[in-house]
Design a protein that fits this description.
Mean pLDDT: 82
Helix content: 10-25%
Order of helices and strands: EEEEEHEEEEEEHE
Distance between the termini: 79 Å
Number of strands: 12
Number of helices: 2
Strand order of the largest sheet: 5-4-8-2-1-11
Strand content: over 45%
Shape: globular
Amino acid sequence: EDWDICKYHINSTVTDGYAITIITSRVVNRRDQPTEIEFHVKIPKNAFISQFKMSIEGQMYDGVVKAKKEAQQQYSEAMSRGQSAGLVRSLEEFTTSVTVAAHQKVTFELTHEELLKRRLGQYELQIYARPMQPVNDFKLDVHFHPTVEQQTLCGACGDDGLNGDLVIVYDVFRDDTLGHLKVQSQ
Protein backbone atom coordinates (compact mmCIF):
# COMPACT_ATOMS: atom_id res chain seq x y z
CA GLU A 1 0.00 0.00 0.00
CA ASP A 2 0.96 3.61 -0.41
CA TRP A 3 -0.13 4.44 3.12
CA ASP A 4 0.81 3.33 6.61
CA ILE A 5 -1.22 2.98 9.78
CA CYS A 6 0.99 4.69 12.35
CA LYS A 7 -1.49 4.37 15.26
CA TYR A 8 -4.26 1.87 15.99
CA HIS A 9 -5.88 2.05 19.43
CA ILE A 10 -8.93 0.21 20.72
CA ASN A 11 -10.32 1.32 24.07
CA SER A 12 -13.28 -0.62 25.43
CA THR A 13 -15.03 0.37 28.64
CA VAL A 14 -17.47 -2.10 30.14
CA THR A 15 -19.90 -1.21 32.91
CA ASP A 16 -21.95 -4.18 34.08
CA GLY A 17 -23.42 -5.43 30.81
CA TYR A 18 -22.84 -2.38 28.60
CA ALA A 19 -19.74 -1.78 26.46
CA ILE A 20 -18.50 1.41 24.79
CA THR A 21 -15.63 0.82 22.38
CA ILE A 22 -13.59 3.55 20.71
CA ILE A 23 -11.34 2.67 17.76
CA THR A 24 -8.78 5.29 16.74
CA SER A 25 -6.62 4.88 13.65
CA ARG A 26 -4.06 7.39 12.33
CA VAL A 27 -2.92 6.85 8.74
CA VAL A 28 -0.29 8.67 6.64
CA ASN A 29 -0.31 9.03 2.84
CA ARG A 30 3.28 8.35 1.69
CA ARG A 31 2.64 9.29 -1.95
CA ASP A 32 3.41 12.56 -3.74
CA GLN A 33 -0.23 12.88 -4.80
CA PRO A 34 -3.67 12.60 -3.17
CA THR A 35 -4.54 9.00 -2.34
CA GLU A 36 -7.78 7.28 -1.37
CA ILE A 37 -7.34 5.70 2.07
CA GLU A 38 -9.81 3.16 3.44
CA PHE A 39 -10.81 2.72 7.08
CA HIS A 40 -12.41 -0.67 7.70
CA VAL A 41 -13.74 -1.91 11.04
CA LYS A 42 -15.88 -4.93 11.84
CA ILE A 43 -18.65 -4.07 14.30
CA PRO A 44 -20.19 -6.68 16.64
CA LYS A 45 -23.60 -7.83 15.42
CA ASN A 46 -25.60 -6.25 18.27
CA ALA A 47 -23.60 -3.02 18.47
CA PHE A 48 -24.54 0.36 17.04
CA ILE A 49 -22.31 3.19 15.90
CA SER A 50 -22.80 6.18 18.18
CA GLN A 51 -20.12 8.49 16.76
CA PHE A 52 -17.68 8.78 13.88
CA LYS A 53 -15.10 11.53 13.44
CA MET A 54 -12.20 12.20 11.10
CA SER A 55 -9.37 14.68 11.50
CA ILE A 56 -7.71 15.71 8.24
CA GLU A 57 -5.00 18.38 8.03
CA GLY A 58 -5.92 19.61 11.52
CA GLN A 59 -9.64 19.96 10.80
CA MET A 60 -12.21 17.76 12.58
CA TYR A 61 -15.15 16.33 10.64
CA ASP A 62 -18.12 14.70 12.36
CA GLY A 63 -19.97 11.95 10.52
CA VAL A 64 -23.43 12.91 9.20
CA VAL A 65 -26.07 10.53 7.83
CA LYS A 66 -27.32 11.45 4.34
CA ALA A 67 -29.27 9.75 1.59
CA LYS A 68 -27.06 7.38 -0.43
CA LYS A 69 -27.34 9.32 -3.72
CA GLU A 70 -26.65 12.71 -2.12
CA ALA A 71 -23.68 11.35 -0.17
CA GLN A 72 -22.17 9.72 -3.28
CA GLN A 73 -22.58 12.94 -5.28
CA GLN A 74 -20.90 15.09 -2.61
CA TYR A 75 -18.06 12.59 -2.30
CA SER A 76 -17.49 12.48 -6.08
CA GLU A 77 -17.52 16.28 -6.35
CA ALA A 78 -14.97 16.65 -3.55
CA MET A 79 -12.68 14.02 -5.13
CA SER A 80 -12.83 15.74 -8.54
CA ARG A 81 -11.70 18.99 -6.86
CA GLY A 82 -8.82 17.14 -5.15
CA GLN A 83 -10.28 17.70 -1.68
CA SER A 84 -10.35 15.30 1.23
CA ALA A 85 -13.69 13.49 1.51
CA GLY A 86 -15.12 10.35 3.10
CA LEU A 87 -17.97 7.97 2.33
CA VAL A 88 -19.32 5.14 4.52
CA ARG A 89 -20.37 2.08 2.54
CA SER A 90 -21.61 -0.34 5.20
CA LEU A 91 -22.46 -0.44 8.91
CA GLU A 92 -21.81 -3.98 10.22
CA GLU A 93 -18.58 -4.00 8.21
CA PHE A 94 -17.98 -0.26 8.65
CA THR A 95 -15.94 1.01 5.71
CA THR A 96 -15.19 4.55 4.67
CA SER A 97 -12.88 5.93 2.00
CA VAL A 98 -11.11 9.24 2.31
CA THR A 99 -8.97 11.07 -0.22
CA VAL A 100 -5.94 12.39 1.64
CA ALA A 101 -3.53 14.97 0.21
CA ALA A 102 0.11 14.03 -0.48
CA HIS A 103 2.17 13.33 2.67
CA GLN A 104 -0.76 14.20 4.95
CA LYS A 105 -2.31 12.21 7.78
CA VAL A 106 -5.89 11.34 8.63
CA THR A 107 -7.19 10.20 12.01
CA PHE A 108 -10.36 8.11 12.18
CA GLU A 109 -12.31 7.69 15.42
CA LEU A 110 -15.28 5.35 15.56
CA THR A 111 -17.34 4.74 18.69
CA HIS A 112 -19.72 1.81 18.95
CA GLU A 113 -21.88 0.74 21.86
CA GLU A 114 -23.40 -2.58 22.76
CA LEU A 115 -25.74 -3.98 25.38
CA LEU A 116 -24.07 -7.31 26.15
CA LYS A 117 -26.16 -10.43 26.61
CA ARG A 118 -25.62 -12.65 29.63
CA ARG A 119 -25.42 -16.33 28.64
CA LEU A 120 -24.71 -19.25 30.95
CA GLY A 121 -24.00 -16.86 33.81
CA GLN A 122 -21.42 -14.81 31.91
CA TYR A 123 -21.17 -11.77 29.65
CA GLU A 124 -19.09 -11.92 26.50
CA LEU A 125 -17.42 -8.93 24.86
CA GLN A 126 -15.94 -9.47 21.42
CA ILE A 127 -13.42 -6.99 20.05
CA TYR A 128 -12.28 -7.21 16.43
CA ALA A 129 -8.61 -6.18 16.14
CA ARG A 130 -7.88 -6.16 12.42
CA PRO A 131 -5.65 -3.31 11.23
CA MET A 132 -4.47 -5.52 8.31
CA GLN A 133 -0.81 -4.49 8.69
CA PRO A 134 1.74 -4.35 11.50
CA VAL A 135 1.41 -1.08 13.44
CA ASN A 136 4.15 0.57 15.53
CA ASP A 137 1.64 2.13 17.97
CA PHE A 138 -0.92 -0.66 18.48
CA LYS A 139 -2.89 -0.70 21.75
CA LEU A 140 -5.86 -2.67 22.88
CA ASP A 141 -6.90 -1.21 26.21
CA VAL A 142 -7.54 -4.44 27.99
CA HIS A 143 -3.86 -4.56 29.01
CA PHE A 144 -2.70 -5.88 25.63
CA HIS A 145 0.07 -3.87 23.90
CA PRO A 146 1.78 -6.14 21.31
CA THR A 147 5.10 -5.08 19.79
CA VAL A 148 5.56 -5.03 16.00
CA GLU A 149 7.51 -8.28 16.33
CA GLN A 150 4.71 -9.95 18.36
CA GLN A 151 2.18 -8.88 15.70
CA THR A 152 4.06 -10.79 12.99
CA LEU A 153 5.22 -13.88 14.93
CA CYS A 154 1.90 -15.31 16.13
CA GLY A 155 0.72 -18.50 14.43
CA ALA A 156 -1.93 -16.87 12.22
CA CYS A 157 -0.32 -13.42 11.75
CA GLY A 158 2.24 -13.58 8.94
CA ASP A 159 3.16 -10.48 6.92
CA ASP A 160 -0.30 -8.95 7.39
CA GLY A 161 0.29 -8.56 11.11
CA LEU A 162 -2.18 -9.20 13.91
CA ASN A 163 -5.66 -9.66 12.47
CA GLY A 164 -7.94 -11.40 14.90
CA ASP A 165 -10.67 -11.19 17.47
CA LEU A 166 -10.41 -10.75 21.22
CA VAL A 167 -13.15 -12.36 23.26
CA ILE A 168 -13.50 -11.40 26.92
CA VAL A 169 -15.77 -13.53 29.09
CA TYR A 170 -16.71 -12.14 32.50
CA ASP A 171 -19.45 -11.92 35.09
CA VAL A 172 -20.63 -9.24 37.50
CA PHE A 173 -20.46 -9.78 41.27
CA ARG A 174 -23.97 -9.92 42.71
CA ASP A 175 -25.00 -9.65 46.35
CA ASP A 176 -26.86 -12.86 47.24
CA THR A 177 -29.26 -11.00 49.55
CA LEU A 178 -30.73 -8.96 46.71
CA GLY A 179 -33.98 -10.25 45.32
CA HIS A 180 -34.88 -12.30 48.41
CA LEU A 181 -38.00 -11.52 50.42
CA LYS A 182 -37.52 -11.28 54.16
CA VAL A 183 -40.58 -11.77 56.37
CA GLN A 184 -40.73 -10.60 59.97
CA SER A 185 -43.27 -11.69 62.57
CA GLN A 186 -44.90 -9.06 64.79
